[in-house]
Design goal:
alpha+beta, two-stranded antiparallel ribbon
Length: 58
């Protein structure tokens, strides 16, 4: 999610498109530790987003 509100979503089944791609770079987990959330918090937040590069099948 970008500051301007644009949301992009990638996963194993949708790893790239004209907007960008899923990164496979290693991350420094200590650097991101202050931002850690639970899996359920992530899924709840994700459910509220509408990525411009994905079509929801609901």
């Amino acid at each position: 999610m970008y500051a301007n509100g644009v949301v992009l979503a990638y996963d194993e089944q949708h790893d790239q498109d004209e907007f960008g791609m899923l990164t496979y770079a290693d991350l420094d987990l200590e650097e991101f530790a202050p931002f850690e959330i639970t899996r359920q918090e992530f899924l709840d937040a994700l459910a509220e987003l509408k990525p411009i590069n994905r079509h929801r099948r609901e």
